[in-house]
User: Fold this.
Amino acid sequence: MAIGVVAVQGDFAEHAAVLEGAGFSPKLVRGYRDLFGVDGLVLPGGESTTQAKLIDSAGLRSPLEGLIREGMPVLGTCAGLIMLSRTIIGGRPDQWSFDFLDVEVLRNGFGRQVRSFEAELPVAGLLGAMHAVFIRAPVIVAAGEGVDVLAEVAYKFVDGTTRVLPVVVQRNNVLAAAFHPELVGDSRLHVLAFGAPAEKLI
Ligand code: GLN
Assistant:
C-alpha cells in the first residue's frame, strides 16, 4: 500500500520511516504528480503556517482536497491536525485549513511556559498505551457531534485548572492526533488510518 507523505515542511522523514517499518510503501509528496498511485495520505507535524503556504505554492491544495473529499484515508499529526481542522484560532490572518474535521483548534494552546510534554495515553482501538509527545501542540477546543474522540489527555494549565482535552480524533477517512507518534516510532495510528492486519494494532 503506497502512502503519500506531504513533504513540503516538517517531520515527513520520520513518518516515512514509521510507515516503512509497518510494511507500507511511503512516497514523499512535493508536487501533484507524486500523488499518482497513492492509497493514503499523511500530513506531518511541523509548522502549519509554513505548510499552508507551501502546499499552496506547490499546487497541492486542490489535488489533496479532491482526494480526501473522495474518501482517501488521511492521518494528520500536530500541524497536520491543524491543517485538517475546520477552524484555527491563533493562526496567521491568511492561514487556511482543509476543513475535513469538524474541530476548532487553538494553535500552541498548551501554553507558553510548558511548550512540550509527554504522556502515556490509552487510545480507543489500541491495546497498549501510546507514548504521546506534545510539541507546541494545538488544543482541540471544540469538536462537532460527528467527530469520534479516540484519546484524551488531562492537562494542568499554568492557571492551575485541569482540563480533559481530546487529542486523537476521527471522522470517516480522517484521523488526527495532537501529538507525534512518528517521533517515537509508533506506527499504530498509521495502521488504524490505513488499515492493516489487526495484530499490528497491539
Ligand atoms: N505549533 C505548530 C503549528 O502551529 C505545530 C507544532 C507541531 O507540529 N509540533 O503549526
